[in-house]
Amino acid sequence: MPELPEVETIRRHLAPRVEERVLARVEVRDPRWCAPLSVAEVVAAIEGRRVERLWRRGKYLVASLEGDVHLIMHLRMTGTVLYDGDPARPHMRVVMAFDDGHALTWVDPRRFGTGQLARGAADLEAFFDARLGVEPLSEAFTPGLLRSLARDRRAPVKAFLLDQRRIAGVGNIYADEALFRARIHPLRPAGRLTGAQLERLRDAVVASLSAGVAAKGASIDDFRDPDGARGSFQDQFLVHRRGGEPCPRCGKPIEKLVAAGRGTYVCPRCQPRPRRQKAAVLAAKAIGITAVEATGGILRRPTGAPGGGDA
Predict the structure, then answer these.
(1) Catalytic residue of the set 5, 56, 57, 59
(2) 3 part of the active site
(3) Own/partner pairs for 217-220, CB < 8 Å, 24+ apart?
(4) Could you tell me the CATH number of the domain that includes residue 79?
(5) Do residue 241 and residue 167 come from a single domain?
(6) Residue 151 bears catalytic tag
(7) Which of 129, 156, 174 is the last residue of a domain?
(8) Which residues constitute the domain of residue 281?
(9) Is-catalytic flag, 188?
């Protein structure tokens, strides 16, 4: 899924090309893209309007049009925005043609991407207030703010970082990279992090996202910039998708586990487990339990083992 650096890469490529241009023709080929609004309603609202600003909020790309109309777009898992892409390309969902003869084409094989409307600044603000927290590359994202957001949170810190209502734009890739940089295990409860750990985490989130932006995003599967080029951040991963490879810091093999329902990569030496979970893992090994459920630390015996069931 495109995260903050990938969406910011798209914005930086497109803003100089589409700002001050008029949306001369809009063709929505997939009604799911704008549901529950109808295609006719969306086209009538944006066609013929000038793009005053193209900007980003979290993982959303926003086109603010004249007349205080805003098109809010989310690429979800497989969405790609191409500048002058082939409109006959498979999985094409939306075509937006401008008054200068150029066009944006939206490709989305899994059809999860969305386009939504906000009519007026108040509606736009309400839309984001209900969904997104602080921008992590803004001056507002301070260690003090992070401390207040994490206070009393029992959820694992990985889940905390992925919660868009608290920190906007961080996804699976950049959460893994930030937690490694900060030397924090992803299953450690967010509310139990020390002040020093939270300060390291804040700096690590900013550093990871900034590195992703500088590399023009990570192209693991579908992501391409509007000119069709791949990002390069995948070549700089410290731990993400590097299971079994040596840690770049200590050399110990990187491990893969599940945290917040997502495949997660850690160095077991640089990111030690919380004490309770480490003790539970040792106890599990002692009595022959082979799996530990990563979310919540629930131990499960192998099927057919004596005393089977939840331990």
Answers:
(1) 59
(2) yes
(3) 217/2, 217/5, 217/6, 217/9, 218/5, 218/6, 218/173, 220/173
(4) 3.20.190.10
(5) yes
(6) no
(7) 129
(8) 277-311
(9) no
